[in-house]
Structures are given as C-alpha cells and as structure tokens.
Amino acid sequence: MIRRLGSHAGKRIYFGYDRYIRPELIAYREVIRAHGALVDAVGDDAQLHYLTSAELVCTAVQTDPESFGILCCGTGMGMSIAANKFAGIYAARCMSVEDSELARTINNSNMLCIAAKSGIELNTLIVDTFVRTAFTGRKLDELELITRFEGLPAPSLRVVRRTA
C-alpha cells in the first residue's frame, strides 16, 4: 500500500463514526458519496462506539486494497489512535485542509480521521482535499521505515532514575 501512487478519487470509501456525528450524518454521507462508492461500515446504533467503528473500517480497508477509510468521532483522536494499531493502516487526524493535503503528499495516508466538533463545513474541505490529493512518492524511504515498525516487537522499557 505504501508505494501506491495517485489519489483516492473514485475508490471505495469505508466510513465509520460514533454518536457525535449523528445530527449531521446524512450530510456527511453526501459529502463522502460524492468522491466514490460509499460503504457505511456502521450497521446500527449498537455499533456507534468509536472503537467498534474503527475496527470495522480498518479491517475492511485491510482486506480491500483499492479502498480507503474515513473515521469521524468527537475529536478524531480516539479513532486515529485505534486505527493506527492495524497493520497497513496509516491514519491521519486532520484538523485543517493543510493537514489533509500533507497526510496524502508526505505520508500517503489511507485513513482520514476527522473531528465532528470541527463541523461539516470545514470537514467537507478536509475530505475533498484528502481524496483529491495524490501521493507522488515523496519521502518514500521514510514511509518504508514506518512499515518496518509494524513488524518489530515492542521494546522493553527501562526506567532511568535521576539522583540529585
């Protein structure tokens, strides 16, 4: 995935969210649907917890390499942290248009995490930029190093005590 060039335009989009997006859910679906085949990964109200949504979307994107995901919770932070635990998922919490552009051009992110609290107007611009911005191979050596981290065992922690 990390070497794939181009934009996400026209790809399948897996969409996950939690209860914070419910008041504007229809508007979000329309914004996302304008960019590709929307697959709403949240089936019912029982699955409105952000961790359940993140898991559903991430596992779908892992098995569908011609897709990407959009996750939305109150702040976007919980979704981003959870999503980045999945191998092959490169989630970016974007709070601005510039963030979403850089998430694509520098990091080739395949998972956009947005904050419901930012509102539909700003998030529409963020989604539009994320989908349309192409990855051109910039900093590929650094991205390949990141993919190596996925297979490394967790380091043992060493406590260093300072003495006065």
Entry keywords:
single chain, 6 helices, Ribose 5-phosphate Isomerase B, Chain: A, alpha/beta, 164 residues
CATH architecture assignment: 3-Layer(aba) Sandwich
CATH class: Alpha Beta
Structural class: alpha/beta
CATH topology: Ribose 5-phosphate Isomerase B, Chain: A
Mean pLDDT, rounded to whole units?
Answer: 86
Number of strands: 5
Strand residues, percent: 5-15%
Summarize the structure.
The protein has six helices and five strands; from the N terminus they run E-H-E-H-E-H-E-H-E-H-H. It has 164 residues and is an alpha/beta fold.
Q: Could you characterize the architecture of this molecule?
A:
There is one protein chain. The protein is an alpha/beta fold. It has one domain: Sugar-phosphate isomerase, RpiB/LacA/LacB (Ribose 5-phosphate Isomerase B, Chain: A), CATH 3.40.1400.10. Helix content is 38%, strand content 15%. The chain contains six helices and five strands. The protein has helices spanning 25-33, 50-63, 77-83, 97-105, 120-132, 140-149, and strands at residues 12-17, 38-40, 67-73, 91-93, 111-115. A five-stranded parallel β-sheet has the order 2-1-3-5-4, with helices on both faces. Helix 1 packs parallel to helix 5, helix 2 crosses helix 3 and helix 4 (97-105) packs parallel to helix 5 (120-132). The longest helix is centred in the middle third of the chain and has 14 residues, at 50-63. The chain is globular and about 45 Å long. The N and C termini lie far apart (50 Å).
